[in-house]
């Protein structure tokens, strides 16, 4: 019932894919894999990196050319296949604490490979966390960046690093600052359904008045739209229209589950708090992130402008997958049932045939016995047969019925 594989969005944008277009996804995690699946469906050649041999096999089963690149083990660029052949490069590897962006640490080698390759387009996936707390103000891409946490500082450093790396290259480069990412398999619905406890970081986010978020399908839309911008150096916020607090989102998710699957959850996994505790943990309103540039300059029309639309589509996909699984189970069970019925029918037919033979044999024997003990001009010497009349020809015999 719980989905394992993300469904395709309704009426998705089409990425034209001439034969020479080749996307390399550095970090084929939740977003990278989702984008890869959609591009593969549009006929693109797609390569990607992951951190283990097991994940490599999963990506290859999707149709990708996969390479293992573990940022924590100082992997070499030579391990990344297709780095020089790719025409499009999507970077979805988060900075590593104490290391930073592992690829940018190989700056000179990376610049040499990309500079002599086929690259036309580059996109780095960043985060809206670089804006820090803005007291509830609406912030756009021109707002002063002042990251507070260590991870946000590393994100901002990586943004500048990638833009500097390709500064003198003839290609389009984009920074997409993503809100909190959700989608099939990774949402408030999934957290509740799996009775999964919230991390300490998630619990701290509960107290925020505003939370920027975006459905993974709309990240794909933004990526496709940016490909139409030639020789640009642009930053875009990729968020939906409703920066609702986390508690509101979980309450709506719970109501959806209770309507469709009332026995699936019994209590919220670690999202309940007393009113006094909640008040004690309230923090400033932080920020509301604007997506006006995304809509105006890239022409993106969000598939899921609010969390309500996004969560509704996810729970609808649960029902669709459940029905599909039921049909598949029935189809798989049909040959076995048919075989059992067929064998049973054969056995019954054999029994009935044998029984009929026994009855007939017994009936025939009775007729023979009786015919031998009967007399009269109408009976011949042929046992069990009787003339049809006195004027009948010698071959006009009929079976005598007892």
From TrEMBL:
<comment type="similarity">
    <text>Belongs to the NAD(P)-dependent epimerase/dehydratase family.</text>
</comment>
<dbReference type="GO" id="GO:0016853">
    <property type="term" value="F:isomerase activity"/>
</dbReference>
<protein>
    <recommendedName>
        <fullName>NAD-dependent epimerase/dehydratase domain-containing protein</fullName>
    </recommendedName>
</protein>
<dbReference type="InterPro" id="IPR036291">
    <property type="entry name" value="NAD(P)-bd_dom_sf"/>
</dbReference>
<keyword id="KW-0520">NAD</keyword>
<keyword id="KW-0413">Isomerase</keyword>
